[in-house]
Design goal:
Distance between the termini: 77 Å
CATH topology of the largest domain: Serine Threonine Protein Phosphatase 5, Tetratricopeptide repeat
Shape: extended
Protein name: Ankyrin repeat domain-containing protein
Oligomer: single chain
Strand order of the largest sheet: 1-2
Keywords: Signal
Strand content: under 5%
CATH class of the largest domain: Mainly Alpha
Largest sheet: 2 strands, antiparallel
Number of strands: 2
Helix content: 40-55%
Length: 163
């Protein structure tokens, strides 16, 4: 039976669906933070390539920028850690990793982490030929690691990866 009390309850419940942020099941939508300004993301990723002090300063000012990615275009996404990795900057890479940056096979190769590289390749063989930021190869990342990554370079060669 539709009473005045039931009518009012239904009307209030139905009108809540029209209010932004209210879901159909009666809860509120999760508030999302404002995205980091894209110019700051680009600056942080750029600093990650070669500027340890600048990277430290920006991360101290904006801790949530740690894993931010810059889109250079056409799906070429890069993080500060990715930049440090293909530029052969283990100091910057280690700093970022120590603060929780997301490690990938390219960084592991540059840093000479042979066990990690082997484990990833054994689990996902296609990673041998996957491309990092800017299309830079796994071998190039390993070469940029210098002496610390010589074992990774030799391993990649043994897997048929020449460049």
């Amino acid at each position: 039976m539709l009473t005045r009390k039931n009518f009012i309850k239904r009307a209030v419940a139905s009108s809540a669906l029209l209010i932004p942020g209210i879901s159909a099941i009666g809860g509120t939508a999760q508030n999302r933070p404002t995205p980091i300004d894209s110019a700051l993301v680009k600056d942080f990723v750029s600093k990650g390539h070669s500027d340890l002090e600048g990277t430290k300063q920006m991360l101290a000012e904006i801790p949530t920028i740690l894993n931010a990615t810059w889109d250079w275009g056409n799906g070429d996404y890069e993080t500060a850690l990715g930049g440090a990795s293909h530029m052969g900057r283990p100091d910057i890479a280690q700093y970022l990793i120590d603060r929780g940056a997301r490690l990938d096979i390219f960084t592991a190769a540059m840093m000479g982490k042979l066990d990690l590289v082997k484990m990833i390749v054994a689990t996902y063989p296609a990673s041998l030929t996957s491309a990092g930021p800017h299309g830079i190869t796994l071998m190039k990342h390993a070469v940029m690691g210098g002496e610390a990554a010589l074992e990774v370079v030799e391993y990649l060669k043994s897997q048929g990866i020449a460049k």
